[in-house]
Amino acid sequence: MAAAWSYRWHGASYMSTAGGLGSIYFALTDVPQIDCDVKAGKIINPEFIAKCPPGCQDVKYRVYGTDIYASFSSVCNAAIHSGIIDNAGGKILVQKVAGHSGYRGSFSNGVRSLSLPRWRESFLVSEGKPRKGVTYPSTLEYSSSKSTTVKSEPKKPEQDLKATKSADTANASEKASEQGNAVRKEHQTPPVPTPATQMATTTPTPTTTTTDPSTTPKPTTTPATTRTTTAAAAAKTRPGMHRVRDIGQIQAAQGRGQNTAFRGTSTSASNRNILRSNTGIQRQDPIAAGSPPLSFSSKEKLNPKPLESISQGNPNCKVDLSFLMDGSWSIGKRRFQLQKQFLGNVAQALGIGSAGPLMGIVQYGDDHSTEFNLKTYANSKDLRNAIEKITQKGGLSNVGKALSFVNKNFFSDANGNRGGAPNVVVVMVDGWPTDRVEEASRLARESGINIFFVTIEAAAESEKQKVIEPNFVDKAVCRTNGFYSINVPSWFSLHKVVQPLVKRVCDTNQLVCSKTCLNSADIGFVIDGSSSVGTSNFRTVLQFVANISKEFEISDTDTRIGAVQYTYEQRLEFNFDKYSTKQDVLSAIKRISYWSGGTSTGAAISYASEQLFSKSKPNKRKIMILITDGRSYDDVRVPAMAAHQNGVIAYSIGVAWAAQDELEAIATDPDKEHSFFVDEFDNLYRFVNQLIQNICTEFNSQPRN
């Protein structure tokens, strides 16, 4: 019998038979069409097939990367760059993937893509054929607006697909010996999901979202994972290297049958395991045998009922916040409840709302799972109720794995990330992690995520040799000055740090990891307008300036652009606070008129220092980019040295007859990374990517103290 496979599209069916005689038929009536300027990051769907129109091969539709593209690239022009389609358009398959630490620019198929140091989300493009077992949407959901419905023939009712719900449950049982000296763990084995029900951690299976314009859509989210929590699971062991904290609290049992209690509690041995110092078990609070398992489906966890009210929230604390919640067995049931109370109090103190802070929670143990994301709850009351229902995962304290997950998956448009709000992660740790956090934290920081650590009952001096990664907090946080870390001596005093933590999280001026090389500078262009340049070449220089400016995130709070033109004299074309949008800056650059005259580069550097950089904001990096085509009539060394001493990072770009010794004197050390020379104006474009890469490399090498 021939093997067969089939695809199901909303409004389209696909079937094939393998072996013997077979047939393939397609009914692609509902492929959504997108415009040339649509960027992958604006589409929420993690995987989709779309149709590109003709005419997308244009420099105004920018592309970043090669083979793997940053998500703010034009989808259709990226498809042309990769050779999937040509300028006539056509169908493409787009798959969202994790962000990369670097994207390489190249020239391919008539499209020049640009390089980028990093971005938090990427995508792949391939031939527009459906993959086996995947449901594709006929309606694409955009992050900034309602779903855009494809103009096509009306669907038949039977063509609509319903989302497949799966709620797999797995039970684990553990028995403690009567002597209390050995614990046997029976690990639960999760069922293997079928293609129709499988949920991927990094790229969830696409589903169709259709919005009726006449109604208000209910808030829904697609879960990143499907997880079943079983409240009947008994205590698991942590490795012997991880400390036993409760031994000193155990009261000696006097005689047979007497009970052992924890930290002054009166819990009897009938519903709590008696721990001994040689078991290696910490803070076990198992539920009594026979208790029914409690399980929550992914829909219950991540797709809440319609909210009763959507709060505006605290406008003075607009942050996108993820808490990494410790669900390891070392914490115990009692302290897990204290942790939930703490998170509920934080949610209340923050003032959750659409115009203020938004908060999601990821719980970690052996692995990690999203309890709810940023857009699941829009007010503090609903959020607190949801926190109260969270059940403990158990396992080890794998913080590093959880941080990697959050960096790659949590702060996405699909999960409610707003882009303009700082990304903040607060990691709750009982004692110390059982894996390494340094590398995962570094990648998260470089993605612009602000990492806070709240450590409870940290290792004592006698226990520090058991910690896998010494000084793990300093290796993880954004700055090592104490602002990003809070150490709490006891879980029972955790409530005291609610207000201090909220105050720090909401202090957006101090959230330095939100600052990246693309959004944290005052960039001043110092442009040679001397007679030797000429009108045509001057326009080429302005295009070079515009190409650099395009790569930065421009606003009054992000990167700002200013410009000075010089000959014998100097002219302020526009200062840093003149324009606050990218389009206004690019238009202003285009309007700069050619001056013509001599070449006094030294005087121009002094003028830029006084008229531009003296008015730079304290939290901005001051970057000067000077373009000249000849030797200066005056000295450049003294003005350049003064600018360097005032914190100006200087890049020099020389063309044609520019003097190499002057370029090196103008440039910040090391001058090989800050000075460039090109033989003719038409080759200036070659240094756009290299210049931006050097700016970002220098930014990322700053000390974290």
From TrEMBL:
Its main location: secreted. It is found in: Secreted, Extracellular space, Extracellular matrix. It comes from the Eukaryota. Residues 320-501, 522-691 form the VWFA domain. Pfam families: LCCL (PF03815), VWA (PF00092). GO terms for cellular component: interstitial matrix. One of its GO terms (biological process) is positive regulation of cell-substrate adhesion. Residues 52-123 form the LCCL domain. Residues 134-311 are annotated as: Disordered. Keywords: Disulfide bond, Extracellular matrix, Glycoprotein, Neurogenesis, Repeat, Secreted, Signal. Residues 152-165 have a biased composition (Basic and acidic residues). Residues 195-238, 247-258 have a biased composition (Low complexity). The keyword Lipoprotein does not apply. InterPro entries: ECM_Assembly_Org, LCCL, LCCL_sf, VWF_A, vWFA_dom_sf. Gene3D superfamilies: LCCL-like domain, von Willebrand factor, type A domain. Residues 136-151, 166-180, 259-282 have a biased composition (Polar residues). Binds dermatan sulfate and chondroitin sulfate. PANTHER family: COLLAGEN ALPHA, VITRIN. Promotes matrix assembly and cell adhesiveness. Plays a role in spinal cord formation by regulating the proliferation and differentiation of neural stem cells. This is Vitrin. It comes from Strix occidentalis caurina.
